[in-house]
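FAQ: What does the model actually see?

It sees only this:
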Amino acid sequence: MATFPPLRMDLPRHLVGMNVTSPNVTSPSAAHQSLSFSSLPLSVQTWAVQMLAFHAFGLLFEALDHFHVLPSAKVRSLRKSQYMHLLPNVLRNQVFVLLPFMWVMEVLGLAFVGSLSPLRFMLNLPLMALGHELVQYIGHRYLLHAPNVFLMKLFRHSVHHSTRANSAISACYMSPVDFFIEIGCPYLLPLAAVGGGGGGAFFHFLVAGAGAVGGLYEHSGYDFATAFRPAFENLGEKPMSDSEKKAAYDALALDDGRGPLTRFVTNWLADFLDNRAHLEHHMRGYVSFSDGFGSPSILDTLLRTRWNLSERRRADVEREWARQHSQHQ
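And it is asked to produce this:
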């Protein structure tokens, strides 16, 4: 009787380990793995973490407003909650502008790619802060607040200023073009400039989450530094001349019973939590274009546009507005 060699069932190498019992059925473990958070592009993961941080802290500030917690730190009063009114615009910008922009930057190999050594990690953090300030200052001052009547109307930056920075999530309440210039570019262009930030998650989660929380605080109407600095320095107090302010500080020093360590910690907290810059920007559009919470504030200082240097620019700004107004009549 003829004999036949045993039937061999060798599989191609790329199919080894796969469940081939039925070619049309995917194993539950494989399906679960394909839908896991870690299987998403890094840009999408980062966006999701940023949204979690933004809306969690946004709701926290909303709770502070609703239950009137820390009223002494609420320096920009809020007549009624604007949260639900602002939310649709905010979500539109975050989903249809920021998310595609982040994903495209990854697809093009400009961000969320590469390697990141511990040294590069530490260097990239201050470089990102400097890059963010540079891009935001240029776009915010020269495109959105030139003052240029045509550009301001075209980009509708007035939508953002209509909130008066007294509700935290108003940080992202703006026209789509304004959002692209003021939020997307200052975040993603510096990220590309430093080499993409690497392919690891922690650096991107840290940068995106910190940026979200900082923007919320700047627009919340709260200034937690009020608990650590003299009352005459707080927003809304009667302005004082240099001589009056020096006399007030001299009198304060005579009554200062704090020790050196307490004084150091108090002064550091007052500087770190200071939120006057961006609040003043929403009151007077010609000051503090990148100066704010967590910002190095280099350009606003060098170009004399910081909120506490702004009076020296008032006459120049008013002359420029008068010139453009006469041209458009």
